């Protein structure tokens, strides 16, 4: 192995992380085409010039078993061996493969920050309850927290008393006294 070589175990570790990505039933022993493409994209193997997404798909199809839809770690290595000389032109096969391994090791699927929270002035303006007027204002308390169903619907008073009657709730006391 060349100087600064990467251990196969480290590459296998990254392979497993990508293999289980987005698939709750995956064991990490096999990788599907989607995750292989993701690994190539996240680890910058797919640089858009020497290697494109099409190249990645072709190599995946080439190394997998005829009827299979996944590749094993051995087939994954075979795929990398095919991609390495293309990605690092002018290097020996072994050197190119080592550099490719170097790109993969320690990586995990990048899904952090895929959906960023939109922070726009418009969102702040629309969610500022202090600027609400009319009946919409009734849906929030003084702190700006929503009142839930009570703020959306007129909940009828089923107490049996007329609205604004001052003696609400005093009937029981009057009956007891009598």
From TrEMBL:
<dbReference type="GO" id="GO:0001578">
    <property type="term" value="P:microtubule bundle formation"/>
</dbReference>
<dbReference type="GO" id="GO:0005874">
    <property type="term" value="C:microtubule"/>
</dbReference>
<dbReference type="GO" id="GO:0005737">
    <property type="term" value="C:cytoplasm"/>
</dbReference>
<feature type="compositionally biased region" description="Basic and acidic residues">
    <location>
        <begin position="135"/>
        <end position="155"/>
    </location>
</feature>
<dbReference type="GO" id="GO:0046785">
    <property type="term" value="P:microtubule polymerization"/>
</dbReference>
<dbReference type="InterPro" id="IPR011992">
    <property type="entry name" value="EF-hand-dom_pair"/>
</dbReference>
<dbReference type="GO" id="GO:0032273">
    <property type="term" value="P:positive regulation of protein polymerization"/>
</dbReference>
<dbReference type="InterPro" id="IPR008907">
    <property type="entry name" value="TPP/p25"/>
</dbReference>
<protein>
    <submittedName>
        <fullName>(Atlantic silverside) hypothetical protein</fullName>
    </submittedName>
</protein>
<comment type="similarity">
    <text>Belongs to the TPPP family.</text>
</comment>
<dbReference type="Pfam" id="PF05517">
    <property type="entry name" value="p25-alpha"/>
</dbReference>
<feature type="region of interest" description="Disordered">
    <location>
        <begin position="133"/>
        <end position="163"/>
    </location>
</feature>
<keyword id="KW-0963">Cytoplasm</keyword>
<dbReference type="GO" id="GO:0015631">
    <property type="term" value="F:tubulin binding"/>
</dbReference>
């Amino acid at each position: 192995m060349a100087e600064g070589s990467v251990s196969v175990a480290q590459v296998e570790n990254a392979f497993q992380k990508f293999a289980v990505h987005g698939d709750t039933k995956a064991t990490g022993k096999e990788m599907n085409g989607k995750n292989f493409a993701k690994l190539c994209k996240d680890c910058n193997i797919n640089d858009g010039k020497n290697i494109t997404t099409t190249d990645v798909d072709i190599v995946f199809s080439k190394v997998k078993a005829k009827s299979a839809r996944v590749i094993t770690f051995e087939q994954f290595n075979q795929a990398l061996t095919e991609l390495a000389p293309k990605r690092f032109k002018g290097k020996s096969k072994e050197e190119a493969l080592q550099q490719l391994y170097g790109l993969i090791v320690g990586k995990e699927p990048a899904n952090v920050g895929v959906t960023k929270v939109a922070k726009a002035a418009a969102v702040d303006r629309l969610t500022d309850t202090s600027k609400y007027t009319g009946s919409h204002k009734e849906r929030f308390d003084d702190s700006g927290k929503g009142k839930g169903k009570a703020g959306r619907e007129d909940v009828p008073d089923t107490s049996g008393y007329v609205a604004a009657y001052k003696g609400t709730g005093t009937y029981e006391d009057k009956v007891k006294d009598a």
